[in-house]
Amino acid sequence: MRGRRMKSGMRVAGVVGAAFLAGTVLGPVVMPPMVSAVAQETGNRAETYRLLNLFGDIFERIRAEYVEPVNDRDAIENAINGMLQGLDPHSSYMNARSFRDMQVQTRGEFGGLGIEVSQEGGYVKVISPIDDTPAARAGVKPGDLITHLNGKSVQGLTLQEAVEQMRGERGSSIKLTIRRPGADTPIELSLTRDVIRPQVARFRLEGNDVAYVRLASFNEQTESALRSAISTMRKQAGGTLKGIILDLRNNPGGLLDQAVQVSDDFLEQGEIVSTRARRPDDSQRWNAKPGDITSGERVVVLVNGGSASASEIVAGALQDHRRAVVLGTKSFGKGSVQTVIPIPGNGAIRLTTARYYTPSGRSIQGLGITPDIEVLAQRQDDKAPLRDREADLRGALSNDNGTHEVAPLPPLKLPPGVADKVSRLPPEGAPAFDPTKPETDFQLQQAASLLRAWAAAEPQRRAAR
Is 80 exceeded by the pLDDT of residue 241? Predict the structure, then answer.
């Protein structure tokens, strides 16, 4: 399906993020209005029919002889989901309820606990809690493995089934049993479900001269919220602004349209992102339109291992155009494109259909965005487990940068010596990070120091604004 925009503003082609939420699905979303059948291009049709007969035989044997009666719809949906999940980590089936939940979530509101999750070793793995949600307030952390829900093991459940169990009416409770790296014993948490309305953009002035805006996800409100935040802070700063920090850490993705628009807000021209599909005619490209909402302010983008999908599109576009300095640690590395295809009356399938590429032509699939300046959030013990990324997921697509030309990145546009003032590690004895205390956020403080040093090294530019 090509081309036209839906009423909601979503493109007919785009990207779906890597994470499920306890309440819905998150990721840059493609929602074609109808499904078209595509003829099988290769293969032996007789063999295909033989295999379909094999499926039918097994289905009938299960219905007839399984120890307990089997619901036909459940069996078929499980088979469909198994077929899709066997392709790669991001293809899957959504029943009608899950599809409706996903549509609600992309509008910026959904029910649940407020955690983005994936599946690992049969357990539910937390990618990131969403800011100011029951999960975040209860202390759920990235990397946590949820092993039990209300005392019952999640082993044997599909990821979708586990997500559905974590949904529920506002005010109802659920008990999570968590296995946390570094903890000797399981952690028991009781959470009260709520309607999740995450504040997609949080912003403030750091020291009255640096604008800080954190994007928690990419839903239909993200770009307008970013515009409002930057406009407000520029007025508050009264002409003393030294730069902008765009915080995409632990942002697992969202709508492709929003990732393109956010990138476009900082760019005057040039490519933002492109996709390449199995058939060349299905490939697409998005370009920036004139107009920078910041009027050329200096920009630092913060990323880490929880920055995925749409976040990586934005970071990659601004990095390739040298519009921003990317600071932090390597991002998640999800560079595949999923199309959400509605099946009338039966939900939808999420199918990997392409890879996406940054303006220089590089795929970040399995590699992630490497920051221009690496800054660790805390001093790491050599024995501490590394955070999983896309390349660690079973069945993840390979990176294909070796099959096409990739343009080298231009030199970093920083005055001499400015980057050298950034510290890679917090000092010995630095306080542990507390989300309520920005002064304990080492990466944030290094980004602010970089912008101030950058501004001090360019007095003529500062005076010209």
Answer: yes
Tokens, residue 382: 């050599």
Short-list 210, 285, 293, 201, CA closest to 248: 201
Please report how many Cα atoms fall inside a 13 Å half-sphere around the Cα of residue 212, on the Cβ side: 18
CATH code: domain of residue 176: 2.30.42.10
Q: Does a structural domain hold residue 419?
A: yes
| pLDDT of 76 strictly over 60 | yes
- Distance in Å from the first CA to the final CA of the chain: 45
Q: Tokens standing for 450?
A: 């970089």
The reply to whether 411 and 428 lie within a common domain is yes
Angle CA 274–279–283, to nearest 5: 15
Of 53-62, 116-125, 168-177, 282-291, give the lowest mean pLDDT range.
116-125
Note down the domain range covering 145.
110-196
Length of the chain: 465
CB 28 within 8 A of CB 310: yes
Same domain? For 283 and 420 the reply is: yes
Q: Kindly give the interhelix angle for 222-237 and 256-266, rounded to the nearest 10 degrees.
A: 30
What pLDDT sits at residue 70? 95
Q: Which residues contact 388 (CB under 8 A, 6 or more apart)?
A: 120, 125, 143
The residues annotated with a catalytic role in the active site are 309, 320, 334
Domain end point (choices 165, 196, 227): 196
Beta bridge partners of 190: 175
Examine residue 236 and state whether it is found in any structural domain, yes or no.
yes
Q: DSSP labels for 285-323?
A: EEEPPS--TTTT--EEEEE-TT--THHHHHHHHHHHTTS
Q: How far apart are CA 11 and CA 33, in angstroms?
A: 11
Determine if residue 194 is left, alpha or beta; phi over 0 gives left, psi from -120 to 50 gives alpha, anything else beta.
Answer: beta
- Phi first, then psi: what are they for 359, rounded to 5°? -55, -30
Phi, psi dihedrals of residue 461, rounded to the nearest 5°: -70, -40
